[in-house]
Design a protein that fits this description.
Strand order of the largest sheet: 5-4-3-2-6
Strand content: 5-15%
Structural class: alpha+beta
Shape: globular
Distance between the termini: 68 Å
Radius of gyration: 23 Å
Helix content: 25-40%
Low-confidence stretches: 160-164, 386-390, 396-411
CATH class of the largest domain: Mainly Alpha
Largest sheet: 5 strands, antiparallel
CATH architecture of the largest domain: Orthogonal Bundle
Number of strands: 16
CATH topology of the largest domain: Phosphatidylinositol 3-kinase Catalytic Subunit, Chain A, Domain 5
Number of domains: 3
């Protein structure tokens, strides 16, 4: 979706918020941000039930802030818009329109024009002299009010193909070499250990990681709220809190313990892969309507951060009151806090599958340091406290314990 820059208002201080099911209310910004439901109206968020009183905030409400552009995308948008209008969060919501992740939409006087959709196979096979991301950026930037510092775009896919939902296309940069290959590897492992993932691909030149949007199902947009929103926090607070508290959020908004079991698997995978960026915005719930029960979204934004020297070597959130990457004892202590049964068996299973999968991902030959870092991280995650026994040693030890148990029972 392109926009007519001459149609931009000089300042955006009021927006009507709608949903696929009907009108929501009005968001305004003067001395503070205020959202008021209109009548009739649809509930816009899990923690914002319909009421007569306004929801007033000194900063933008978390549900609206969730998709604000950050980092690369925000800079690119600001550079193109600053000649025409005042840059503000309200402006970015207006530009977002109907393109945002989740079910919220924003009405504004901005004139829009359709952008020709792209074909997935052409994106993956691009071999032109100029980078395809730069080409996609010029045409799809105004579709893209995605959070996160990484260069990424929402790209409309060719509806004539078998692919229905739109695509999220990501690339790396100087500070994060081979980031697309990194994410592809980690998501491949996530799928191998049985976690739900969106469809995803790596471009032939390994410069792009492409993922199918999972907030659109059967042509309808689902509600999606990340855990920063669910905890009533701004995106700046994404690294504050603990995985134990995140599990409590799941308990409030979902049906039963099974979603917490799945969340445990998500966190364990991040430990195994050395992912120090599993913060509150990288977990989310999906729902068809705010008054229905939600489910944990497919896993997303998983990378091995420990391979990059610029990254912190700790977890994004606390586990067992610590941000150190846990070993076996720490992970099983976390499982006990969440009342996870058979956690040791699941940890060993995930670790073994992950280690085997790493050996079979041919593209890793182009990033040997990533392979080495992943193997080291997996070994640390299954090692006993104070022990240097790695993955192979533990596997042999488990076989020995099983044999001893069979002999004890005369089998």
């Amino acid at each position: 979706m392109g926009i007519d820059l001459s149609s931009l208002p000089s300042r955006v201080h009021q927006l009507d918020v709608t949903t696929p099911d009907g009108p929501g209310g009005r968001l305004s910004h003067d001395a503070y941000y205020s959202f008021s439901y209109t009548s009739p109206s649809e509930q816009i968020a899990l923690a914002m039930p319909v009421r007569n009183e306004s929801y007033n905030h000194g900063t933008l409400h978390p549900i609206f802030e969730m998709n604000l552009p950050e980092g690369f995308v925000r800079r690119q948008l600001s550079e193109r818009l600053q000649r025409y209008t005042r840059i503000s969060d309200m402006l970015f919501l207006a530009i977002q329109g109907e393109e945002g992740i989740g079910r919220l939409q924003y009405e504004s006087p901005i004139v829009r024009s359709p952008v020709e959709p792209d074909n997935l196979q052409e994106i993956l096979a691009w071999n032109g002299q100029t980078g395809i991301f730069a080409d996609l950026l010029e045409r799809h930037l105004f579709n893209t009010t995605l959070s996160g510092m990484q260069p990424k775009l929402v790209v409309h896919s060719d509806k004539a193909s078998l692919l229905g939902p739109d695509l999220i296309v990501k690339t790396g940069g100087v500070d994060y070499p081979q980031l697309a290959l990194n994410e592809y590897t980690c998501m491949t492992i996530a799928s191998a250990v049985g976690l739900p993932t969106p469809n995803f691909w790596l471009s032939d030149n390994q410069e792009l990681f492409v993922m199918e949007r999972f907030d659109i199902q059967d042509g309808k947009k689902l509600g999606m709220e990340d855990f920063a929103v669910l905890m009533g926090r701004s995106g700046e607070a994404r690294y504050l809190g603990s995985y134990e508290n995140a599990a409590k959020v799941i308990d409030i908004y979902t049906d039963g313990h099974q979603e917490i079991v799945r969340f445990f698997d998500y966190v364990v995978l991040s430990c195994l892969l050395g992912n120090g960026d599993a913060h509150l915005k990288n977990f989310a719930l999906l729902y068809s309507h705010p008054q229905s029960r939600a489910t944990l979204s497919p896993i997303y934004d998983v990378v091995c951060t420990r391979v990059y020297e610029l990254e912190s070597k700790s977890l994004a959130l606390k586990m067992n009151k610590s941000q150190d990457f846990p070993n076996r004892e720490g992970i099983l202590g976390f499982a006990k806090n969440l009342n996870i049964k058979h956690a040791a068996q699941r940890l060993d299973e995930m670790a073994e599958i992950a280690m085997q999968k790493i050996q079979n991902i041919e593209e890793l030959a182009m990033f040997p340091l990533l392979k080495k870092t992943l193997e080291k991280s997996i070994s640390h995650s299954v090692a006993l406290d104070g022990s240097r026994i790695g993955f192979t040693g533990l596997r042999k030890d488990r076989k020995k314990r099983k044999t001893d148990a069979l002999l004890k029972h005369g089998k």
